[in-house]
Amino acid sequence: MAQIRIQNVRKDFGSFTAVKSSSFTVEDGEFFMLLGPSGCGKTTTLRMLAGLELPTSGEIYIDGEEVGQKPASQRDIAFVFQMFALYPHMNVRKNISYPLRSQGMKRAEVKRRVTEVARILGIEDMLDRPVGRLSGGDRQRVALGRAIVREPKAFLMDEPLGALDAEFRERMSEELRALHDRMGATTVYVTHDQLEAMQMGDKIVVMNHGVVEQFGVPQQIYDWPATRFVAEFIGSPPMNFLDFNAVMDKGTDSIRLGDATIGVPRQIDGASGKLTLGVRPEHVRLTDSGAYRGRIAASEYLGTTQIVTLKTPNGQVKARVASSDPVQVGDTVGLEFDARTLTVFDAGSGRALVSTANREVLTHG
Amino acid sequence: MSFSVTEPARRTKIIAGILVAGYAIITLLPLVWIIATGFKSPSDAIAYPPKVFFEPSLEGYVNLFTTRTRVTDEAFAALPPPETWYDQIVRDSRMVIAGPSRYGERFLNSVIIGFGSTFLTMVLGTMAAYAFSRFRVPLKDDLMFFILSTRMMPPIAVAIPIFLMFRQLGLNDTHLGMILLYTAVNLSLSVWLLKGFIDEIPVEYEEAALIDGYTRFQAFWKVVLPQAATGIASTAIFCLIFAWNEYAFAVLLTSGTAQTAPPFIPTIICVGGKDWPAVAAGATIFLVPVMVFTILLRKHLLRGITFGAVRK
């Protein structure tokens, strides 16, 4: 098991830059999520870790050793593909033992390891079956078996649950996380599903357009997004954005939105011009008296909560409130925001302004 | 009456069956004629109307493999009685065997050149196709077109230059020369066909093998080749059939040591009159290897000629 460190890694395909100067560190034993929309460079980053692509520039350290230009076969890592990539002309046993045979391991030892892995994954009874007739979940287990049988330095997984049915996905994600906790293996996991990333990950890197937008533990990323992109990509429904123009002095802790004064965390730096206030739906309260007002446009019932869509002078706001709250479409109500949870973004760059609340998160990552 | 999208109607099936059977009869008739003629006596072979029922004779086959001479009546009478069944057949036409014919050698030449060039084509073609399929080759599309363009002219157009080149290089009438020539001609077909097949194999299989600690060549050998077996087999059949049947280059470039069967068979006609049964016998035996090869690889061929249209 090992620490993985990526430093200023860049990847060009001809004139297209897939990854622009990315840096982050995966600590030993971490379950690490690479999250982003398709085409953001997360898979390319993973493939560079694996050695399936070589970086145009930058360094990759696995266990302290620089491996950036080494071929995959010399990196001692395992890779789980989205489409499983089980060898179709071999049965389950041969698939799982294939990486061991490349090392010239003794037959008895290979057999022992394969049996052991099959037991862990609960696939002992299908070892002699051809892989073509397995269900999606079982194929995934075999692919995992082929990865863990080697006891590699790290596991790299490229949307391993992406090809599974919804019901299987839930179960496999639990199995995966449990397997990781038992083995304590460093795992880098690529996904475009923010829920999956939040559920399973110890740490998350959010990427967009080949750039690392933010890097941290799930809760920090959810609560204190570094950019507007992160705020929008993570959370469902996403963070609300209210655009406004203002001059904010250093140390201010409130802003004017129309006629209302809204408290925000104390700002470290000043800012002026086009700004955006970010607020999570669950931090919006609907009141009768609030100074900042909006008209209720719609309401979605979700069981214990409901999502209320409001039109305000600064844009649309979605509020997550208890489903017992009486909500009448067409009514005008007051909106109150939880001042401790708000983030102000610079509308031009999309970056979050540093406040006393998010300073820790933004400066360490 | 109900209609089903997947199951054709009974009448459709019958019509289709009749059409297929009719087509099979038309294509197979010349084959039947050749095989039958091989077993006829020379007089039956040229009888008109053609004889459908005849007394089978091995004279054609004996004549194919021997050269015979006519001797004077006294010498013929003085001969010891025939030792073997084929001696007997020749004596029946008042001739004696002078020695073996060259058919065996020519046939062997065909085998060496046909299978040799097919093997070489497959080795080079598979590797080239793999490279074109997987790597970023500069000017890939242009190169692929150049390769294809070698097939765009009739062979006879380049026959003279090739003849001159071969003479200069000492490749005239050699096995090596013919193997190289047929390989060169077949490579375009094989690279194009095989690239199609290899494109169909997901690249993840090889990547999995690379990750599992295998080198690029091992991944190619142990993972890609087994997957491409179907395509390789059907491409090999096409290449073999071409090299086996090729006539124009063979006539021009071979005359002795390396002469293949196709230019040799017609020469049988001139030896001691128009010996049609011997020609037919030569053609029949010539058919056998390709037939066996095709039947052995039949399963692959059937799947292969859909050209990977069906997703595995």
Give the helix/strand layout.
The complex is a heterodimer of chains A (365) and B (312).
Chain A: E1 4-13, E2 16-26, E3 31-35, H1 42-50, E4 57-62, E5 65-66, E6 77-80, H2 92-102, H3 107-121, H4 136-148, E7 154-158, H5 166-183, E8 187-191, H6 194-200, E9 203-208, E10 211-216, H7 218-223, H8 228-233, E11 240-248, E12 254-257, E13 260-263, E14 271-279, E15 284-287, E16 292-301, E17 305-312, E18 315-322, E19 332-337, E20 343-346, H9 359-364
Parallel strand pairs in A: 3-8, 3-9, 6-7, 7-8
Antiparallel strand pairs in A: 1-2, 1-4, 4-5, 9-10, 11-14, 12-13, 14-20, 15-19, 16-17, 16-19, 17-18
Helix pairs in contact in A: 2-3, 2-4, 3-4
Chain B: H1 10-38, H2 42-45, H3 59-65, E1 66-69, H4 73-78, H5 85-92, E2 96-100, H6 103-134, H7 140-149, H8 155-169, H9 175-199, H10 204-211, H11 216-245, H12 248-253, H13 261-264, H14 276-296, H15 298-304
Shape of chain B: globular
Top CATH class of the largest domain in chain A:
Alpha Beta
Reported for the largest beta sheet of chain B, the result is: 2 strands, antiparallel
Strand order of the largest sheet of chain B: 1-2
| Integer average pLDDT of chain A | 91
- Tell me the CATH superfamily of the largest domain in chain B: MetI-like
Write a brief structural summary.
The complex is a heterodimer of chains A (365) and B (312). Chain A is α+β, with helices and mostly antiparallel strands and 365 residues long.
Q: What report would you give on this structure?
A:
Chain A: Pfam families: ABC_tran (PF00005), TOBE_2 (PF08402). Chain A: Belongs to the ABC transporter superfamily. Chain A: This is ABC transporter ATP-binding protein. Chain A: Keywords: ATP-binding, Cell membrane, Membrane, Nucleotide-binding, Translocase, Transport. Chain A: GO terms for molecular function: ABC-type transporter activity; ATP binding; ATP hydrolysis activity. Chain B: It is found in: Cell membrane. The complex is a heterodimer of chains A (365) and B (312). Chain A is α+β, with helices and mostly antiparallel strands. Chain A folds into 2 domains: 4-223, Rossmann fold; 239-356, OB fold (Dihydrolipoamide Acetyltransferase, E2P). Chain A is 25% helix and 35% strand. Chain A has 9 helices and 20 strands. Chain A has helices at residues 42-50, 92-102, 107-121, 136-148, 166-183, 194-200, 218-223, 228-233, 359-364; strands spanning 4-13, 16-26, 31-35, 57-62, 65-66, 77-80, 154-158, 187-191, 203-208, 211-216, 240-248, 254-257, 260-263, 271-279, 284-287, 292-301, 305-312, 315-322, 332-337, 343-346. A 6-stranded mixed beta sheet of chain A has the order 6-7-8-3-9-10, sandwiched between helices. In chain A, strands 15-19-16-17-18 form a 5-stranded antiparallel beta sheet, with no helix packed on it. In chain A, helix 2 runs parallel beside helix 4 and helix 3 crosses helix 4 (136-148). The longest helix of chain A is centred in the middle third of the chain and has 18 residues, at 166-183. With 312 residues, chain B is an all-alpha fold. Chain B has 2 domains: 56-101, no CATH class; 103-304, MetI-like fold. In chain B, strands 1-2 form a two-stranded antiparallel ribbon. In chain B, helix 6 (103-134) crosses helix 11 (216-245). Mean pLDDT of chain B is 87; it is low at 306-312. The A-B interface holds A 50-52, 71-73, 77-79, 81, 83, 85-89, 98-99, 102-103, 146, 150 and B 202, 204-205, 207-216, 218, 223, 226-227, 312.
